[in-house]
Amino acid sequence: MPWRLRTPRFTNGLFVLLLGYLVTIVVIDELTSRYLRLDVYAAVAPMVAAALCAYRHAIAIGALDFVAMTVIYGVLPSSVPTVARAGAILSNALMVGASIAVARLLRDREELLERERATGEAAQRALLRQLPLRTQDVVVDGFYVSSQRDALVGGDLYEAVQTPYGTRVLIGDVRGKGLSTLGAGAAVLTAFREAAYHRRDLTSGVLAMEQGLARYNASREGREPLEAQERFVTALVLGTDGAGGPSDAAAREEPISLRVVDCGHVAPYVIGPHGAVREVELAEPGLPLGLGELADHPRAVQRVVLPPGCRLLACTDGVTEARGADGSFYPLAARLHRWAALPTSELLSRLRADLAAHTGGQLQDDAAALIMERLAMPDQRALEAARD
Questions:
Q1: Distance CA 114, CA 134 (A)
Q2: Where do the coiled-coil regions begin and end (predicted)?
Q3: Which residue range(s) make up the domain with 108?
Q4: Model's pTM, two decimal places?
Q5: In what order do the strands lie in the sheet with 367-374?
Q6: Residue 250 CA to chain centroid, in angstroms?
Q7: Which residues face 262 on adjacent strands?
Q8: Residue 120 — very low, low, confident or very high, per pLDDT cuts 50/70/90?
Q9: Cβ atoms of 252 and 307 closer than 8 Å
Q10: Are 306 and 377 members of one domain?
Q11: Does 250 share its domain with 344?
């Protein structure tokens, strides 16, 4: 939104410049011949202030311009004909009035846009919770970048919830991009959150997600273009086997056994504690949500072992298929090998910045990346101090 460029720092500096410009015009007008009328040039100041400065600054510049022109052409002695003097005062009065009116309209528009932005941000945050997300045994951190300007969410989705059956993690990518995909994403997310608490096995939860997406697609029939009525979603659903919270020191020395259901999604990576990185090869990738009925057998639950100290990175194709200026895809595997020894927050920060640099800040698709790792053990000394 361009109007948000009118920051206090910007408008304060411009106000000083316009004030100096107006004073300069008044001084020149006073020192030169009365037939060299500069009132037109003085009227530029309130016009610029209305467009680029804060509302109070526009009023101050307009009032100063009107007072100065009234004094010069209406109070001080002058050989300029009365009609010309009256015309100068009237024309400046009209310009100042119009400038203040424009400034008021722009201020009201800014306030309306800000309210809409806040409302939209709240609605989008209700759809996708802010990262990192923590459960009893893992923490999921990451980033989300929408390809649509000023949007916080779009066609990608993620979630991590603690359930009676362990942690459930989802990352998905709706066909398409931008805000037009929000409905399909919301349908899948809602079904995932509900099924995670009431269905023990991952496959039945995935079936619930597929049914939720089917209901959404059916509700759009005849109301949108055909391609928008047939949304499908690639997804990766992961689950741990049970609780085992951060205080369970013995369990923390054991590998994490993840159950995985792949619905045609980008393969994840396992990042080792000493910089080793490997792509997880899933035997049965499966079909995306929305296309499951085309398969002749149910989706399979596969196992991925996450050794102690290892992390799992999952992302959407907005990362792996991001193109640079030369048309090359983003080299995710090579970057992960380079940064594998970094802490999660720093790795994600570097990945996000490098992705923006690779694409020149022009993502063609929404991009999301998640890193899942075992929740850190609480510091024993801190716990003892808290008890005291």
A1: 31
A2: none
A3: 2-123
A4: 0.67
A5: 133-134, 138-145, 367-374, 311-315, 269-271, 277-279
A6: 39
A7: 236
A8: low
A9: no
A10: yes
A11: yes
